[in-house]
Write a structure and sequence with these properties.
Helix content: 25-40%
Strand content: 15-25%
Oligomer: single chain
Protein name: ABC transporter ATP-binding protein
Bound molecules: adenosine-5'-triphosphate
Strand order of the largest sheet: 6-7-8-3-9-10
CATH superfamily of one domain: P-loop containing nucleotide triphosphate hydrolases
Organism: Dyadobacter psychrotolerans
Pfam family, one: ABC_tran
Shape: globular
Distance between the termini: 41 Å
Keywords: ATP-binding, Nucleotide-binding
GO molecular function: ATP binding; ATP hydrolysis activity
């Protein structure tokens, strides 16, 4: 894929009414169409706030965000169709089965019935959920719930996908399955923006990153370049070098 812009973030700042200081200050980033882009940083850095703004869940206090597809800027209604979001919290109905959940969320995107059925079965199979497809999600393990959460976020085949810690609290098998699947859809053309606290996972998965600390971008670029410039061998060392050793809570 060529290096075309996917998302342009210009001077985004955010101040919650209840807090004294800005949570985000003057964030400007360009995310390319072909990227797996990691938003990384210590606890409380502002990653979830930024991803929530990018998904349109909360408006920024100031600044602008442009979404591009095939080199042209998307309208508000196009954005809603093109964007997918996999939140950190589970976003499904525990009392429903994966099949019922996918039918419900697919209908919310107005997917035609036949198309939805094909997509639903494809996702259940690829994410290893077929055998439990009619059982209540409340009975599932953490790894299975994460995979249901992912399936729901991508039911409408988004062109731009945001994921907030998609592999938190899951075993290696589920983590690998999720990352492999995300790599595949990125190869097929989906822009991916994700947050994680797993540095080895992010190192394997992302081509570009932004390190956020105290609500500001303190470093951004291609991971290989950042490691060379900072004379470190891995992402974890880069993270510690740039954000320090002290606790953030
Ligand atoms: N709705 C809100 N109202 C007020 N303050 C908030 C709200 N949401 C988040 N914050 C504050 O904004 C700061 C950034 O939080 P955010 O969740 O965006 O960080 P994060 O980088 O995702 O952290 P973590 O890695 O712990 O998930 C924190 O100090 C948090 O307490």
């Amino acid at each position: 894929m060529k290096t075309l812009p996917g998302i342009e973030i210009l001077h985004v700042s955010q101040k919650y009414k209840s807090s004294r200081d800005n949570t985000l200050t003057d964030i400007s980033l360009t995310i390319n169409r072909s990227d797996v882009f990691g938003l990384l940083g210590p606890n409380g850095a502002g990653k979830t706030t930024l991803i929530s703004i990018l998904c349109g869940i909360i408006p920024p206090s100031s600044g602008e965000i442009g979404f591009y597809l095939d080199g042209r800027i998307l309208s508000e209604s196009e954005r809603k169709r093109v964007i997918g979001f996999v939140p950190q919290e589970y976003a499904f109905y525990e009392e429903l089965s994966p099949r019922q959940n996918l039918d419900y969320f697919g209908a919310m995107y107005n997917l035609p019935k036949g198309q939805l059925e094909i997509r639903r079965e494809e996702l259940l199979e690829t994410l290893g959920l077929l055998k439990s497809a009619d059982k209540k999600v409340s009975t599932f393990s953490g790894g299975m719930k994460r995979r249901v959460n992912l399936a729901i976020g991508i039911i409408h085949q988004p062109g731009i996908l945001f994921l907030d810690e998609p592999t938190v609290g899951v075993d290696v098998q589920s983590k690998n399955a999720i990352i492999r699947y995300l790599q595949e859809i990125n190869r097929q053309g989906t822009t991916i923006v994700y947050t994680s606290h797993h540095m080895s996972e992010a190192e394997e998965f992302c081509n570009r990153i932004a390190l956020i600390d105290h609500g500001r971008v303190i470093s951004e670029g291609y991971l290989v370049d950042l490691k060379t410039e900072n004379n470190v061998l891995d992402l974890q060392s880069l993270f510690i070098k740039l954000t320090g050793e002290e606790y953030r809570d």
